[in-house]
Amino acid sequence: MTTFTFHxxxxxxxxxxxxxxxxxxxxxxALTTEDMARFARWTNLSETTFVLPxxxxxxxxxxxxxTPGQELPFAGHPTLGTCWAWLQxxxxxxxxxxxxxxxxxxxxxxxxxxxxxxxxxxxxxxxxPLDEALVQRIARALxxxxxxxxxxxxxxxxxxxxxxxxxxxxxxxxxxxxFAALADLKLGVIGPQAPGAPTxxxxxxxxxxxxxxxxxxxGSLNAGLAVWLMQSGLAPERYSVTQGTxxxxxxxxxxxxxxxxxxxxxxxxxxxxxxLSL
Length: 278
Known about the structure:
By secondary structure, the chain is an alpha+beta fold. Helix content is 20%, strand content 37%. The chain has helices at 33-43, 76-88, 132-142, 169-174, 219-232; strands spanning 3-11, 20-25, 48-52, 61-66, 71-72, 98-103, 106-113, 116-120, 151-154, 161-165, 186-192, 201-207, 214-215, 238-243, 251-258, 261-277. The protein is globular, with a radius of gyration of 18 Å.
C-alpha cells in the first residue's frame, strides 16, 4: 500500500462547502489509469485530480482530471483547485505569481493574486450555433418553450459543452430538467440577472455523461461561455457569474479580458488535508 499527500478543497468560493469540491492526489506516479479512475468513482466528486511531473519543460506540473465516469482533457475548477493544492504542498513555480499547468489539451496558465486564482481560458475547439433539431430537443429537456432559448452556441474547449441563453436568471434557477433526455449532452444554461443583483449572470451546468447530473460550479463551461459572449457582444469584457444556487451553493466566477486573453477566476477554500492510502 502506498501513501500520498492529499487535499480536498472547495473551488469558486471563499467559504468552505459553498463552491465545488475537488480531491487532489499529489505525486501520483505510482497509480495506474485504472487506479485513478477507481479512486475518482469512490470520491464521487464532480472531479478528482492527480498531480504528476510535467513532460513539457515549460510546465510546473502535469495533472490528470477524472470525473466518476470519465477522464477529461481539461476542466476549470480542477485547474484552480489543483494549482492551489500544488502550491500548498510546496510547489514553487518557475515564474513568480504564474503557474503553468500541463493537461490533456496542453499548457494552461494560472495567475496567483493573493487568495484569488485565475486561469487563461483556452481557445474553443468547436464553436458556432447548434442545429435547430438539437435546440428543440434541449428546450423539451429543460421544460421551456423554444422561444425561451434566445441564443445558443457550441462552447467546446475540452469538455463537449453546448450552451443556451434564457431570458432571465430567474428562469435559469427555476429549471427542473429531464436528465434522461440530456443523457448524452453536456449543457450549459445562462441567463442575465435582474438589475441590482450581486452578479451579472446565473449559470447552470448539466453534465450527465460525466456521472454527475449537475455540476455545482463549472470553470471550463464559464470559460467557453465567456469566449462566446464576449466575442458576440452578449456580455461586457468584465462580468461575474453565480452558479450552484439550485444546489444550495454560492459559487462565484469572475471573468475579464486582458488583450486577447480571457481570465476565469475565483477563490479556493481548504477543507481537508492529510495522507491517502491506496
